[in-house]
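Structure first, sequence second, as always.
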């Protein structure tokens, strides 16, 4: 083996060992396709819960605190997420809280503004079994995501 080819092998070995440490996101994707699929499903469930709450409100002049009352076929305690609902004065919050350390949680809010409902969907900025902070509505009727969450397109 020549000095040049041995030198190349050493450089390659060092690059293979050092680059993943210096640039972990480039070396390993942040989420596997399976994790993305699981998060996407949870997101879609919360979107559907928000829509179902709007329908429920129209038909019952109030929100429900029961996932089963939404008639979506969502199990409250699934393998990767726990789905739940918190009601408040003129608002309801629909949760998909991760059961896994590597998945992010979601919260959807449905707010009564005047005689209409308005929704928002928020994602925890950190992964883990963390219940997201509730979205809020200011005095002008503007709704926004709570602390440590970010708005997600619905």
């Amino acid at each position: 083996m020549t000095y040049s080819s041995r030198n190349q092998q050493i450089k390659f070995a060092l690059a293979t060992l050092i680059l993943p440490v210096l640039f972990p996101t480039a070396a390993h994707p942040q989420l596997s396709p399976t994790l993305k699929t699981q998060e996407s499903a949870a997101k879609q469930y919360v979107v559907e819960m928000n829509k179902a709450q709007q329908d429920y409100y129209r038909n019952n002049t109030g929100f429900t605190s029961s996932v089963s009352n939404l008639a979506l076929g969502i199990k409250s305690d699934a393998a990767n997420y726990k789905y739940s609902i918190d009601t408040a004065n003129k608002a309801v919050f629909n949760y998909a809280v991760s059961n896994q350390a590597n998945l992010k949680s979601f919260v959807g809010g449905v707010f009564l503004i005047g005689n209409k409902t308005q929704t928002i969907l928020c994602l925890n900025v950190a992964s883990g079994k963390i219940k997201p902070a509730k979205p809020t509505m200011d005095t002008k009727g503007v709704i926004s995501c709570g602390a440590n969450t970010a708005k997600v397109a619905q």
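Margin note: The first helix runs from residue 3 to 22.
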